[in-house]
Amino acid sequence: MDATETISTFTDFFVSRGHRLLAGRTLLPQPGDPVLFTSAGMHPLTPFLAGAPHPLGRRLTGVQRCLRTTDLEEVGDQSHLTVFQMLGSWSLGDYDGPQSLRWGMELICDHFGLNPELLHATVFDGNGPVGPDAEALQTWEDLGLPVELLKDNWWSNGPTGPCGPDSEIFAWTGDGPPSGRPSTDPRWVELWNHVTMRYLREPDGSLSPLPRPVVDTGMGLERLLMVAQQVGSVFETDLFAPWIAVLPGLWQPGERSLRILTDHLRSSVVVIADGVRPSSTGRGYVLRRLVRRSLTALWSGCDGPAGWGGGEDSLTLGDLPSDLIADTGERFGLAADPAVVRGVLLSEERKFAGLVRRGRSVLARLYPSGRLTEDDYEFLRDTHGLPRELVAELANPQRS
Question: Which of 355, 221, 377 is nearest to 278 (CA)?
Answer without folding.
Answer: 355
